[in-house]
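Title: Comparing notes on inverse folding

I've been comparing how different people in this forum approach sequence design from structure. To keep things fair, I'm posting one structure and asking everyone to reply with a full sequence. Here's the target:
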């Protein structure tokens, strides 16, 4: 069956409200750990992760950092307008956008948009870096989002500084609660580095310095990529089949150094371990970008469309050949980093090219992430989720973790 023909109702399950973890555990690495391998399920604690991963393997982390994307503006009439920053006008130029002074243009979702006519919204903030005045003006409507022009005083402040003071961390909507102080630390991974996400790569929230040190002692290497997680990660699939669903697009950055480490792992046939579905989608997208380069149909920037893997499935190109092609292309263009975007949808019927093991949380029913898990472990995804539900595992962003070995 082509993934387009998949019935979304086949990928639902009952998730009771009390199984959704509303708050993080006191200690990150004390979450429960489900281990699935060879059709067998074991249960442990995340701090023992090293005991279940093969020696000399390579862990790939997504080092994106969640931004204070939710900005609330109070109108003189009393109405509240929420602006949710999604990505810069030029979505590949994140660093430039965050470093900009005086003015910046972002693509945003707007809550209560009907009550915001043409006037400029103004928000005044008393902060640790002084008094700030932030202004917002609608400049363009783009389907269900808007292009918003921000300007601010004092002009010497960067947009990153202003956003940090003016906005709030965007917790997932299913938590259905207000932010607490602990979220500032706990809704970021310990290795978060590059600003840009509106949701955390939650598989990484369990890692601590202690866990990473134990992995190092077992000679398990690590490398990093950056995929800025978009709001679409929470988007349920509302169509009856996958054919009508439009997958969200997300921005990707990966250094030449990391690509070399991945290439060497593949060349030596060591296990490639993705920390989270975001790392998984990025790694699999790299393969298809390499294929496009070899077939001379791609540009230097990676742009993977939703159905590209299924359209180009018939080829004999190995994963190390695909990454080698990317490295060669970077050399030819004097680049030290691959920029791009991916809209890839991984669903049953997809043949994995890169990832051998996934470390991941438990996902919502009927969304694209549960389809990815079903593609990775086959029909046993339901066996895994039934076990987690029956054995008091905590679900979603602040929930427990799992290690899944590919079928």
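Reply #1:
Here's my take.
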């Amino acid at each position: 069956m082509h993934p387009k023909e998949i019935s979304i109702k086949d990928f639902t399950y009952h998730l009771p409200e009390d199984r959704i973890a509303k708050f993080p555990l006191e200690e990150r690495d004390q979450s429960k750990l489900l281990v699935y391998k060879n059709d067998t399920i074991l249960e442990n604690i995340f701090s023992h992760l090293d005991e279940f991963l093969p020696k000399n393997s390579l862990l790939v982390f997504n080092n994106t950092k969640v931004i204070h994307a939710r900005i609330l503006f109070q109108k003189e009439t009393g109405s509240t307008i929420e602006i949710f920053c999604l990505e810069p006008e030029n979505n590949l130029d994140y660093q430039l956008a965050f470093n900009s002074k005086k003015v910046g243009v972002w693509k945003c979702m707007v809550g209560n948009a009907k009550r915001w006519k043409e006037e400029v919204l103004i928000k005044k903030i008393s902060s640790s870096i002084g008094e700030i005045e932030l202004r917002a003006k609608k400049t363009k409507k783009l389907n269900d989002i808007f292009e918003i022009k921000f300007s601010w005083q004092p002009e010497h402040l960067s947009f990153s500084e202003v956003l940090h003071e003016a906005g709030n961390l965007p917790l997932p909507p299913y938590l259905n609660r207000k932010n607490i102080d602990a979220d500032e630390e706990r809704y970021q991974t310990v290795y978060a580095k590059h600003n840009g996400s509106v949701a955390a790569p939650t598989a990484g929230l369990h890692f601590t310095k202690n866990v990473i040190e134990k992995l190092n002692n077992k000679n398990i290497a690590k490398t990093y990529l950056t995929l800025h997680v978009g709001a679409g990660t929470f988007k349920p699939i509302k169509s009856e089949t996958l054919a009508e669903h439009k997958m969200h697009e997300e921005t990707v950055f990966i250094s030449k150094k990391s690509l070399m480490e991945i290439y060497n792992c593949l060349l030596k046939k060591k296990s490639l371990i993705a920390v989270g579905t975001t790392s998984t989608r990025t790694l699999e997208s790299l393969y298809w970008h390499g294929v496009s380069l070899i077939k001379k149909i791609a540009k230097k920037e990676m742009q993977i469309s939703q159905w590209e893997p299924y359209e180009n499935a018939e080829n004999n190109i190995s994963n190390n050949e695909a990454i080698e092609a990317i490295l060669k292309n970077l050399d030819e263009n004097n680049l030290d980093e691959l920029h791009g975007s991916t809209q890839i949808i991984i669903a049953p019927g997809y043949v994995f090219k890169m990832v051998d093991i996934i470390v991941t949380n438990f996902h919502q029913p009927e969304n694209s992430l549960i389809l990815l898990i079903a593609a990775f472990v086959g029909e046993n995804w339901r066996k895994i989720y039934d076990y987690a539900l029956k054995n008091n595992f905590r679900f979603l962003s602040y929930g427990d973790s799992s290690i899944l070995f590919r079928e």
